[in-house]
Amino acid sequence: ITYLIGFSHFFDVKSWEIAEDGTKITNDDAMNELLKKQKNKNLVFLNEIQLVNGVKTLHPEFKKIVVKKIFPQKIRIEIEKYSNVANIVNVVQGIQKKFIVDSNGFLTDE
Known about the structure:
The chain has 110 residues and is α+β, with helices and mostly antiparallel strands. The protein is built from three helices and seven strands; from the N terminus they run αββααβββββ.
């Protein structure tokens, strides 16, 4: 059993997925790069706190980040964003721009 858990490649991370409200996110290059560093590492010994902190560094606009180990070889990152609270319209010299701000003060859409 020790060999299977510690030395075998059976529990090595081979894939990952990122989801927000049950919807899969595939276009987050920064998060994919972070998760690529976990590839071929043992899922049993994965440091979830370190991974959550890495995601928080990349995306401080996320309210909640949950790392799940899906055995035998997958990581799932579930994220929740702050709710949008303001729609700001700025008009300068006839050019109008709209900004959406979340409850933590981050610009979420332009």
